Predict the 3D structure of the following.
Amino acid sequence: MTDKPTVSVLGTGIMGAAMARNLARAGLDVRAWNRTREKAEPLAADGIRVTGSPAEAVEGADVVLTMLYDGGAALDVMREAAPALRQGTVWVQSTTAGVELVADLAGFAREHGLVFYDAPVLGTRQPAEAGELVVLAAGPEEGRETLAPVFEAVGTRTVWTGDDGAAGSASRLKLVANSWVLAATAATGEVLALARALGVDPHDFFGLIEGGPLDMGYLRAKSALVLDGKLTPASFAVSTAEKDARLIVQAGERNGVRLDVAAATAERLARAAAQGHADEDMVAAYFASFAERPGGDGPAST
């Protein structure tokens, strides 16, 4: 292996495509695969080899990076790739898989002689495209040198949480972080909905909290997406946010903690998805506050 490893990216959605591009811009040899190949084809313009199967993508790769919908999808795709995986290949599992499935993913890695890293990322479309993600990582010390150019290409910071990826310490931290992000997003939608219902200009609310401890750049950024009708392209889609919310609720239940806000957020996101907002930015959960589109002229939509 050279100083710049060959990287296979499996899953080129919002996050995976941006990460693949930044890897290629950093001078790494990148192969990419996506279940719907048409979504991966634009990556060819960035010098990335788009492949027809997971096995073709991972053949000869030094690092395999998975960024798929959930842990089950990651395991299924790696099983498809298995015939072409080499002993000693580094597997960077960046899907938000929750806690329970990390052990299964690590077990697959052991069976196939892979070096497993639990490495979800913190950030959405814009930081992913800018190479400014925060990588939360757990895995053995001896493979970290190989991963350095990979993590440097996709993020500005790597937070190491342990030396055993199978323990899921990085995924646990990711769920805690996501629980805050989802709660703040849901609260933003409800604030805007209540303001509309009471005839309050949202900007009066923003002025009220400006500069104080209740003010948040995140609140203002997410509110602007609703107020300006710019919910697409999504930074983080409603459907994916719902999946993460349910992972958070399940993690709480399995550890004796009741997470009412996360559970309610999951239901709000599910309602928004059912109204047709599944592929819009997650703050489109705002529309779950209304049986009809604000103004009363039909189903909620943007």
